[in-house]
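Reviewers of the previous submission asked for a worked example of the structure-prediction workflow described in the proposal, so we include one complete record here. The input consisted solely of the amino acid sequence. No template or homolog information was supplied to the procedure at any stage.
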Amino acid sequence: MASKFYIDPDISRAKTLPSSFYGDPETFEALKQKVFYGSWQWVGDILDLEKEGSVSPFILLPEFLSEPMVLSRDKNRKVNCLSNVCTHRGNIVVEEAGQQRKLTCRYHGRRFGLDGKFEFMPEFNEARNFPGSCDNLHAFPLKKWGSFFFAGLSPVFDFQKVIDFMDQRIGFLPLDDFTRSKELDKDYEIKAHWALYCDNYLEGFHIPFVHNDLNEVLDYGNYETVLSDYCNLQIGYAEGTDEVFKLPEDHIDYGKDVAAYYFWVFPNMMFNFYPWGVSVNLVQPLSISQTKVSFITYVYDASKLNKGAGSGLDKVEMEDEAVVESVNKGIRSHYYKAGRFSPTRERGVHHFHSLLARFLNGEVEHS
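From that input alone, the workflow returned the following structure tokens.
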């Protein structure tokens, strides 16, 4: 990738990423190695791994990274995130979720412990210098937050700092008690570049123009963005609704009517906390102009569902999709090169573009 991207750190002077960023196939491919390989992804929750021997296979970002992985709980009750590819001939090891005493490849019988360590392989008695460390299943970094698990292929930043930033606001909530509500989950496919979806999410600037219903329950004038290294927070204050968080007296926002905390984690995760619970939004690139967004729902107080800022999420999503797909068409224009940031309303987008430029330019080191 020959292009270098530059985002002026002074938002009052900065221009957005150029339109070529969203339309260049080479840049789209570079994002895999330079951004997604170096970041963290939501990979599941504790609900499928409560018992010893539980295994839960999955593909990390299908059609993009397409990395076969598996979560397992070993005899020490430790949860591991492992490669789900046999180290002998590359066969998928775990085909279905369930409980297993060992991880055994059905192709040639190579066996691993639930911690991924090689244990046995038939017909290898005469193999020299065998087994070696390369015969174990690769173990990926794994972090737990509440009931959620996050893994990275080769993450360059400490996810605990992200957790600490989010806990400043929502650490008072009993995340372990949130209940998965699969009947409320939904997937959306959008005809647009994945980063355009994130651009739209990262500012409340468009709320009064695009989301009439949401605008009626949020105080747009006091809408606030708080930045951290690899994540940021938008705080929606209530206006026209009584559905707000009951914050403890030692909370940083005590005395304020907070209707929603919208967390974004680089590069493609959103955690939208409402008085009823949290909507986890995963933005998954499929192609340069095709994106899948998964809404995963965890409920804390069902009596507050469909009220306040956390109501009508499907309608809000449809409104967002229409705008994002329109932008995806517009940036293909020969006459559009780049835009400018609103210093008061688009700090989150500026933050996102700055991180993308740094990662793509190879300016980020392991922390």
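The CA atoms of residues 52 and 73 lie 5 Å apart. We consider this example representative of the routine output the project will generate in years two and three.
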